[in-house]
Amino acid sequence: MTGAMDGHAEDRGRVYQASGDQHISEHHHYGDEAATPSGPDSVRRPAVGRPPAVLRDRFEVLERLRAGVREGRGGEAYVLYGMGGCGKTAVAYTFFQLAVDECGRVGLWVSASDRASLRAGMLAVAADRGAGDGELLAARNGLRPAADLVWQYLDRSAEPWLLVLDNADQPEILRDGSWLRTSPRGTVVVTTRRSAARWWPGAELQHIGVLPREDAAQVLRDLAPHSGTQEEAAEIAERLGRLPLALTLAGGFLSQQVLDPWTMETYGRHLDEGERVELIDQGADALSGEDPRHLVGLTWQLTLDAFEARGLPEAATLLRLLARLAPEPLPLSLLNHADISDVLPRARCETALRALLDQSLTELVDIGVRCAQSHGVLLDSVAAATPVEKVPLLNTTAVRLLDAAVPGLPDAGPYDPLLRLLVPHALALLRRIDDPPTLADALAVANRLSVALHRTGDYLSAWETARAAADLSERRLGAEHRLVLATRSRAGRALFRLGRYTEAELLLERVRAAQERLFGANDPDTLDSGHGLQLVLGNLGRRDDALSLLRSTIVGRRTTLGPTHPLTLRSRSSLLVLLSASEVVTEEDGTLLHLPSECVRFLGPDHTVTLGARHNRAWALYLLGLFDEADQEIQLVTEAYRRRFGPDYPIALSAQQLLSRTQAALGHVDAGIELMTDVVARRERGLGPDHPFTVASRQLLSAFTSGQWRPPGA
């Protein structure tokens, strides 16, 4: 990603840091709002929808945890482990409130269920503890270690804190990047299904199991006090394995019966008549030979039967639709779409959702975006018991709803936290679907989601999404399926933006070779990979190879897409930073320098490709010694980038750095020094003092201040 605008000594690198490899067919205006990094708004409040009214039988655990947040204590890490549905999150929630209300701790709550959620939540923690926008932006873009930044600010925190990492059922996510650490300034609590000590070195492990008989019975009576005696409740609790999730579902059901209320005895009779839904609690370690998890399925099935009897079949359908997705916050806007009518009338979706909420089958969580969230064990159970004939329509509907939520033509713009929320659901769909045509449709959506993440600068999430989507789909579609290869190519483009050039080169070369063999040299997918590969080669210093590949890509895109297509214009724009001053005036019969005016005519003045072409033209003019023209051009581009992306965005700083050169070349050295001083300060904050971009900027500033800098041709 190092480029000419980053101050290469010979001024011969690449410039298009943020949007140089983008597929743009339409521009979406983002207004004047700066692209400040954002994340979940919920780090100061637990992302749970309906906390327990009373926490039963967890007092000993809570006392052990409370000892870790007493005044003067710090550096402890606790791991609450147990099977799905045993109430680990409820314990963490109650402890969180105690730590905040009674012990004066700053409470911080992060979902650790997937990589994107963990990273976004932890960066929000860093912001809460004082990290600046530039630092956060660089961490999100993969330009500095995100975990190091977070823990740097946690260690510096003026206030003691409690950090909860909830649903860490894939502990390898925490290990990769070293997200789980300790600090004398705070206490860490992890909830997980994984109990193996190797995952949690140095932490104190606490098993959260099922409830004792009397406490389990009291949970039922807390929720449905008029449904039966303590002994009747105890009998039902035993038959539900005393699992808190099953008890909550049963109690919620009993409390909501109005016209024909059920007693505990009636509920027990229906339990006898029902069929057990077997369930494997995915990801959990084996805890005991007598596992009550299968009873969750029986519990919710009684609730769905009651929905049917009350004329609410849509509630059952909505729950089965939710079970195609992930047990993570799902934006409610996704459900409020016309395509849901394929499985249930859109007008009945509100009623169906309220019914699920009433029965505790799902809950509302507000993480800056209003979402619905259901327990993973419940969703797995529902998915396993969904009638096979209903699955195809549910899958296609879920794909269409996600498709509608992802931008149809992703463009460069501010970071959008809504996109991150969609990632686990897109990947869950790929895991659920076996039908190849539907799987291909779901992969196309996941690939476009990766593109959208990429174009907002969230390169790590873009890479992880593309890589995981390709891996999940390859098992059914094959390694040489067009969409699998396209998604692998997208992963390669993200690796390039992360500065992992060698990996990006190997992946893109392999993908491009397969695409050329299968689809032809001028196929759009082959050309797309070729454009991405030439960016990598240019940054690896293989200028001639990059130029040869870029020229063949331009010819192919002219032939296949036409001369005015945004991708054709984008590839031609790249020539402006690969060619030398003598070459640029002869390329395309001397017309290449007029490319921005072509872009304005065919795409409009504010199109991403137009802005990039003007940026690259300013560099070419600077190399040619046409400093006045270069200065006018780059001033306009710099202002446009700052409005659209914010002052800390890499491409905005790249443009500002070129502006410092043109100002100095015009004799305004003091102005150039002022501009470069700002660039260096922002890059040191965002990237650290030793990043190559920062080093190059500091060298240019030093050349200005020492009087050793000379403009091209001097």
CATH architecture of the domain at 59-207: 3-Layer(aba) Sandwich
- What is the overall shape? globular
Structural class: mainly alpha
Distance between the termini: 28 Å
Mean of pLDDT: 85
Q: In the CATH scheme, what's the topology name of the domain at 59-207? A: Rossmann fold
State the fourth-level CATH superfamily of the domain at 59-207.
P-loop containing nucleotide triphosphate hydrolases
Oligomer: single chain
Biggest sheet: strands, sense, closure?
5 strands, parallel
CATH level-1 class of the domain at 59-207: Alpha Beta
- Low-confidence spans: 1-39, 275-293
Number of helices: 31
Summarize the amount of helix as a percent range: 55-70%
Rounded Rg: 28 Å
Q: Provide the spatial order of strands within the biggest beta sheet.
A: 2-3-4-1-5
Strand residue percentage: 5-15%
Number of strands: 8
Care to describe what's here?
The structure is a single chain. The protein has helices at 59-67, 88-101, 115-128, 133-140, 146-156, 171-175, 213-223, 230-239, 244-256, 264-273, 295-309, 313-322, 332-335, 349-358, 376-385, 391-405, 417-432, 436-455, 459-477, 482-497, 501-519, 524-539, 543-560, 566-578, 581-584, 595-603, 608-623, 627-645, 650-665, 669-687, 692-706; strands at 77-81, 106-111, 161-166, 186-192, 204-207, 330-331, 363-366, 370-373. Helix 8 (230-239) packs parallel to helix 10, helix 9 packs parallel to helix 11 (295-309) and helix 17 (417-432) runs parallel beside helix 19 (459-477). Strands 2-3-4-1-5 form a five-stranded parallel β-sheet. The protein has a three-stranded antiparallel β-sheet with strand order 6-8-7. It has 714 residues and is mainly α. Among the domains are: 4-28 and 593-706, Alpha Horseshoe (Serine Threonine Protein Phosphatase 5, Tetratricopeptide repeat); 59-207, P-loop containing nucleotide triphosphate hydrolases (Rossmann fold), CATH 3.40.50.300; 213-274; 312-406, Arc Repressor Mutant, subunit A (Orthogonal Bundle), CATH 1.10.10. It has 31 helices and eight strands. This is ATP/GTP-binding protein. It holds the Pfam family TPR_12. Residues 30-50 are annotated as: Disordered. InterPro entries: NLR-like, P-loop_NTPase, TPR-like_helical_dom_sf. GO terms for molecular function: ADP binding.
